[in-house]
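Key idea: predict the complex, not the pieces.
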Amino acid sequence: MKTKSICVVGNSHISALKGGWDLIKDEHPQQQVTFFGGLKKSLMNLDNIDGKLGLHNAEDAEFFKKISGTDDFLNPDQYDVFLLTGMGLYPNAIINNYWNYATPSTKNSVSAEYFISDEAYADMFWQEVSEGMMLHVARIIRKVTKKNIYISWQPFLSEQLFQIPWRAKLFEPILINDDYVFIHHNMQIISQKLKDEGFDVLMQPAESIFKKIMTKKCYSTGSMLLRPEFNQEHKELDVFHMNAEYGRLCWQMWDLR
Amino acid sequence: MKTKSICVVGNSHISALKGGWDLIKDEHPQQQVTFFGGLKKSLMNLDNIDGKLGLHNAEDAEFFKKISGTDDFLNPDQYDVFLLTGMGLYPNAIINNYWNYATPSTKNSVSAEYFISDEAYADMFWQEVSEGMMLHVARIIRKVTKKNIYISWQPFLSEQLFQIPWRAKLFEPILINDDYVFIHHNMQIISQKLKDEGFDVLMQPAESIFKKIMTKKCYSTGSMLLRPEFNQEHKELDVFHMNAEYGRLCWQMWDLR
Amino acid sequence: MSRSPYENLCKNAFWRSGVSTKDPFSIEGLYRRKFKILRKDRIATAGSCFAQHIARHLKERKFNVLQYEAAPRGMSADVAAKYSFGVYSCRYANIYTTAQLYQLAREAFGDFSPAEPVWEKDGRYYDAQRPSVEPYGYASAKDVMTARKKHLEKVKAMLLDMDVFVFTFGLTEAWIHTESETVYPTAPGTIAGSYDPEIYSFKNYSYNEVLKSFNKFLRYIRRARNHRLRVITTVSPVPLTATASSLHVLSASSYSKSVLRAVCGSLEGQHSRLDYYPSYELITAGFTKGIFFETNLRSVTSQGVANAMRIFLSEHDPQGNENPKSAPPNFPENTTQGAMLEDDIQCEEILLEAFNK
Amino acid sequence: MSRSPYENLCKNAFWRSGVSTKDPFSIEGLYRRKFKILRKDRIATAGSCFAQHIARHLKERKFNVLQYEAAPRGMSADVAAKYSFGVYSCRYANIYTTAQLYQLAREAFGDFSPAEPVWEKDGRYYDAQRPSVEPYGYASAKDVMTARKKHLEKVKAMLLDMDVFVFTFGLTEAWIHTESETVYPTAPGTIAGSYDPEIYSFKNYSYNEVLKSFNKFLRYIRRARNHRLRVITTVSPVPLTATASSLHVLSASSYSKSVLRAVCGSLEGQHSRLDYYPSYELITAGFTKGIFFETNLRSVTSQGVANAMRIFLSEHDPQGNENPKSAPPNFPENTTQGAMLEDDIQCEEILLEAFNK
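Result:
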C-alpha cells in the first residue's frame, strides 16, 4: 500500500476493515484511512450534496458523518483512492437457487427440479448487482472523481452456516457436486462487467476461503457490529460478517494504488 | 246550380269546362264563373301570395292572371265555391299496372306476372294523389277559405285510346276480365279519403262513360287547347282532353252548392 | 431457403403497416378481387339488410343488377320500400340464414314445401317466408299462396339466369318449425303468426350448419344451371336487434357474426369462383373506432357503407363514376331504381325491438 | 301460448337496452358465470398473450393460480419476464393454437415427440416449442432437451392437479412440420430456426380443426385425471401482428378471431363445465369505439383489461378487494408475484413485426 489517503465506504461490512486497520495502522503511518458507512440499505440513497457525498435523511446523515470521525460528508477531493466493501456484492442469487435450478454448466441436473440457462443466472445476478447498493455507491463516486475506485466482493458466508439447516441445504448440493466453479464463474462475469465499467475489483483473500465458497470460521468468529457506541459482537450465528483478522488479511493482500 | 260565383281551377282540363260554360252561360245569368289555370305542372307551385293565390314564376303568373280574365291572382273572397278539375286525379297507377299485377280482387291472376295485395295498389294510388297537383291546389285553397271545394275526377281516357296499341294493351285485359270494378273501387277509396279531408268529390257524368272505364268518343272529339290565343284543337289522338260538350254535361250534372 | 417465411411478405401482411398507420378511409389492398364483374353480367342480390346497400351501389354504377319483381309503374320510392319492391333481385325480402336460402331454392324448383307457410294476424294472412313484403297481409291464405307461387317462379328464373350472386350472411339465430325444420326469416309473432312452443323452436345455426347449407345451395342450383356462377359473399356488420340465445345480446352478436365470418373464410378457400368481400371487418374492426355506426351503435352510417363500397368498386369498377347523378326526389320515373333511399334499409329483424319492454 | 318468443326476454337480450344505451364501463350482465371458482381452487392458465392479464388479475385477487415453474429466488421482475417465468402456470410461454395445446399435453404424458424439436440460430439452440423462454438459447441441443424434459414433468403435474383451466384462444395461423404435422408456436426463423419450405409449411386452422383439437385435449387429459375439471375460455382481442395467409392482415385477423370466437361459442354449448368469458367482444365490439386499444390499434390498454377483468371478477369475486396493495417496485421479494407488469406482456408473435421492412 503506497497510497496516502484511503476512503472506505460500505455498510456493516466496513467493521471488519476498520478492526483490521486498527490492528495494523501503526505499521503504516504514511497511510490514512477514513471509513464512511451506513446501516442497512441507507447507502442506496447516497447522493451528491453540494459537492460532497452524503445522505439526505437526517438520521442516516448523522450516522454517516459520525462514523467517519470527520463529522462531515464525504469530500472526494480529500482522498486518493476509494475502497468499497460489503453492500450486497455477493453471489446470493446463484447460491440460493443452485439446489433447485440446474444449468448446462452445473452437475446437479438430475437432482434439481428445474433446468435453465446459464444466461438466466447471469442476467439475474447482474440485474441484482446493477440495481444494488454497491454499484449505486460506486457510480455516485465515479461521477465526482476519476480516482481509482476499488470494489471488493463481500466475503463468502462463514463455514458456520452448516449449523443453520436451511443454509446447509443450499450449500450441500454445491459441495457434493463440486460445483463451486459455477459460483466462481458467475462472479467472474460480474467482476468483468464491473471492470468494463471502470472499477477495480478485489477478490476475497484466498487464505480466508473454506471449501472454495465459504469463509473459514477463524475469520468470522467475533465480528463486531458497525455501530461504534455498541462495541459489540454480532450474534453468534451471524455468518455474514467477518472479524478484524479478516480485515487485517484484506489490508495485507489487497494492493490499492 | 244555385251558386252565384264559381271559381274553376285546373290545368288543361279546364278547357272543356270553359267551352261548356260558354255554351250554357246565357241560361244562367245569376251565375258567374271564373277560370284560373296553369299549363303542365305549374299549379304544383300555387301559393298564397299576399292573401291571393298565385304563382311566383313570372311566366306562369302571367298566364294564370290572363286566362282568368281578372288580370289578377285568385282572390278567394270573391268566390262562393271552388271547382277543381283535371290536375292528374286519375287512376293512372291502377290502369297502368293492372295488366301485369294481379291482386286478390282482380280476375287476371293467371295472365299477370305478379300478384300483389290490393293494399299495395291503394297505397300507391293514394301516395300519387296525395303528392299530386290536385290535392296541392285543394289544400292551398282550403288554407284560405272554408267555402266548399269541389274536386272533380279527371275524365277517363277517350275510347279512341284503342287506336294506340300500347294503350290498348293496358285496357284490353281490364275489359276482358270485366275488372272495371277494381278501378272504380280504388277510385272510391281515394274519393273517400278526399271527403275525409273535407273536400266534395265530383264523379265523371255517367252519360259520358264508355264501357265503365273510358269516355265516349263524342265527348273527346274536338277538345280545345287551353291557351286561348291558339283557339285550336288538341291533336287528333289526344285521349286525355274532352270537348265543350263534355263540359256542358258536367255543368248540367254537377250540383255545386 | 429464406430465414423466415415472413421476410418477403408485403406491407399489408403486417398489422403495423397494413392497419395501424392507416385510417379506415385510406386502407389499401384490403380487398383484391378474385374475378371480374362486367357491366353486362347479370347480378342477383340476396341476404340480410346490409346486402341492400350493395345492390343499390351496384345499380348506381349501372351494373346489371337483375330485377325480377319490380315495383308497379308509378309506385313512389316510399311505397315501393314499404312493400319490399326493388330491394333485392326478387321480392323475397331479407334472407338472414343460409338454411333459408337453400330452402327457398328448393321451394322454387318444386322440391320443398314449407310447413306452416301462412301466418295469421288479426284476421289477415301473411307469407311466413316473407311476412314483411305485404305489411297488411292478405284476406285469405289462398291469396298468400297465389302470391308465393308467382314469386317462386321469379326466384327460379333468377337462380337460373344470374351470372353473379351477391349474398350477405346475416344471422345464425332463427326460428324453425320443429318437426319439419322449415326455417322462417322472423320469429312467429314478430310480424305475423303466433309463437307456439309445441310447434316452433329456436335455432342457433352452428358453423357447420351454416357452411353446409350454403354449399348445398350452390350444389343444388348448379345441377339446374347451364352456365358458371360467380359468388360474392359478405357478412353483415349489423349486430343483432335481439337474441333468443339466452346470452347477452353483445355476446350473442359476437358469436353469430364470428360464425358467419368464419364460414365465409372457409367458403372463400373452398371455391375458386367464390369471393369474400370484407366490408364486415372494414366497418366493425376496432381500428375504425366505431365511426361507421350510428348512435344506436347498430346501424351502419351511409359514410360507412360508402367507404366499404368504394373499396369494393375500386376493384370492380375502377373507372366508374364516383358520383352518379341521383334521381330527383319527386316524380320518380322509374321507382325501382329510386326505391332504395340511402338510409331506408328494410330490416324485419329490427321489429323485434318492439318486444323490448 | 305467447304472441312472440321475444316478448318475455330480459333487457340484455335487446341491443338497444343491452348495448346502445350503455357504455363499455357500465354494461351489465354481459357475463354470468356457469360455475363458481373458489380461492382454494387450483387454477392453471395458458394461451395467447391476453391470458397473461387474466392470470395476473387472478393472482392480485389472491386466487390460487398455480405456479409450477416459478422464477429463481431473487430474480427481478424484468429478468423473470425476459425468461418467461411467472407468465403462466408452467413456463410454456404463449400457446397460440389448440393444436399446440393438445400436442403439449400428449408430449407431457409421453405420447408424442415433436419433430424438429430444437431450432438453431447463430450457433445457439432453442426449444422449437417455446423458443422465447430462453432468449439466448443453449449451447447444445442436448441442453434444450434436458430443459424440455424438466418442463414437461411440470406440465404433466399441472394438467393432473388443476381444478380450473383458463385458456385464451389466440391464433388460427401456425407453422407446422409438414410431414409430421408437429405444430410450433412461432414460424421457423422468427426467434430461431430457419424456414425451409421443404420441411415446414403454413397452416391456417379451420373452425373444425380448432374445435376438435380442444375437445381432444379435454378428452385426453380427462383419462389421466381423477377429479373434475372446469374450463374458462376466452378469445384474445389482439389482432395478428402479421399474416401468412395472403389476405390483408385486417381480413386475416377478422377471420382468425371469428373462427376462435365461433369455436368458443360451440364449446360453451357442448360442455356444462366449460364457460366462455366474453372479454373479446367487450374489448373489440364496435360499441367500444376502439377506446380499449393503444395507438397501434392492436395492444389492449390496461384500462381495457381492467374493465374486462372487473366484469369477470364481479361474477367470481364480487366481495374482492378492487385495489389490492401492489408490491413495491424495487427489491421484489417474491418475483413470481411481481413478475408481470401491467404493460409488459410477452408476445412472441409481435416479433414478426421485425420482418416488416
